[in-house]
Amino acid sequence: MDHFLYRDGALFAEDVAVADIAASVGTPFYVYSTATLERHYRLFEEALAGMPHLVCYAMKANSNLAVIRTLGNLGAGMDVVSIGEYLKAKAAGVPGDRIVFSGVGKTADEMRTALTGGIRQFNVESEPELLALNAVAMSLDQTAPVTIRVNPDVDAKTHEKIATGRKEDKFGIPISRARAIYAEAAALPGIEVVGIDVHIGSQLTDLAPFEQAYGKIAELTRQLRADGHNIRRLDLGGGLGIPYERSNSAPPLPLDYGAVIKRTLGDLDCEIEIEPGRLIAGNAGLLVSKVIYVKSGEDRKFLILDSAMNDLVRPSMYGSHHDIVPVNEPGPGLEPQPFDVVGPVCESGDTFAKQRLLPPVAAGDLVAFRSAGAYGAVMASEYNSRPLIPEVLVKGDQFAVIRARPSYDAMINRDSIPEWL
Ligand code: LLP
């Protein structure tokens, strides 16, 4: 459920008409709903009730400071994958002891900044990273709290580009080598092993791969404890999928996911961490865009919008579906028509949807892409010298611009021309 609903034919974000935001900030823009962000976070809290836990929002999904602050105020931890994300979490007011640091390529500089600023744990992904972290921690006279990410060789049955838990993927250490690497870690003076980490992929719409992976983690926990390691924390990653196509998809709910965690790992007396990103932010955001032209091709109609693949890359990059809805519902009795929905960028890949059935729309009309709150703004670029678009946060009947649209001058002046030119 989200808080983007029609009232008398006009699309609202909570109690604010989307058209009013468009009139104020111009199009295109992203708009997020506070109530939806908060609701989704609480669903995970409820799903893990009764177990010691921390929900660490995966900031990569949407790392606007206002979004981080909204979730941080509820007590959320953060999963970061770069020192940029770490510094954003701190800037939004999240304390270091609620931040976990994931990622296959952490540099010594990043490790140093996180250790100095405070960190809950590093999720270490390889032996060389373990050794590098040990050296950094020793140089600071500290010990780094560590989980080791294991690759359980489980197929998450999701899009090829976002599956991460198969043995051919670059993530984690092979589960078959885990005992040897934990023994190595235990001998390093700068490292304190606190648990195990796993993340098998994103947009999972079936719980079976989670169940399989978490079963392997339960077994590994027992083995490592028998080997003498104090395994007290399990970071289970993110990945629970969302319904991108409202008409025909109903992925499992956080409560069902929580039941899998309780069933597979509930008797181990471990603190559970999860790292959901998409489920918290995805359906809490819209991308709102204006129709520039309706163009008739040889055999089809193109809806040319003022947003493009540089603003929302998911359809071009993964072939993803986003529901597209009119901001003002058309009157009754109008038959939907098929449109190819495209942006102004100069490549055919700049296509949001092919032959999508939409109510008749005309130049100047506003449309909204649903489920655009996660992996939307964060993946945007300025390709074709199109400045990044604004982000707006709604709470009840108020809205605020949480990232302003840069001026063309600001974009141009970021470059510099050497004196010899
Ligand atoms: N933890 C780790 C270690 C991850 O790599 C990810 C996502 C998450 C948590 C959060 O997963 P989520 O709950 O959001 O599924 N750009 C792609 C998604 C990439 C996901 C990368 N890792 C997309 O637009 O679909």
Task: Give the distinct bound molecules.
Answer: ligand LLP
| Distance linking N and C termini | 56 Å
Q: So, CATH architecture of the largest domain?
A: Alpha-Beta Barrel
Q: Under CATH, the topology of the largest domain is which?
A: TIM Barrel
Structural class: alpha/beta
User: Count of helical segments?
Assistant: 12
- Largest sheet features: 9 strands, mixed
CATH homology group of the largest domain: Alanine racemase
> Segments where pLDDT lies below 50 for 5+ residues?
none
Radius of gyration: 23 Å
The helical percent reads 25-40%
Strand residues, percent: 15-25%
Instruction: Categorize the overall geometry.
Output: globular
CATH C-level name of the largest domain: Alpha Beta
Descriptive report:
The chain folds into two domains: 4-31 and 282-413, Lyase, Ornithine Decarboxylase, Chain A, domain 1 (Beta Barrel); 103-274, TIM Barrel. The protein is 28% helix and 25% strand. It has helices at residues 18-25, 34-47, 65-73, 83-91, 108-117, 127-139, 178-186, 208-226, 254-265, 278-281, 314-318, 408-413, and strands at 4-7, 10-13, 16-17, 29-33, 53-58, 77-80, 99-101, 121-124, 144-151, 173-174, 191-197, 233-235, 271-274, 285-296, 301-305, 324-326, 337-342, 351-358, 366-369, 391-395, 398-403. Strands 4, 14, 15, 16, 17, 18, 19, 20 and 21 form a nine-stranded mixed sheet that branches. Strands 5-6-7-8-9-11-12-13 form an eight-stranded parallel beta barrel, surrounded by five helices. Bound molecules: ligand LLP.
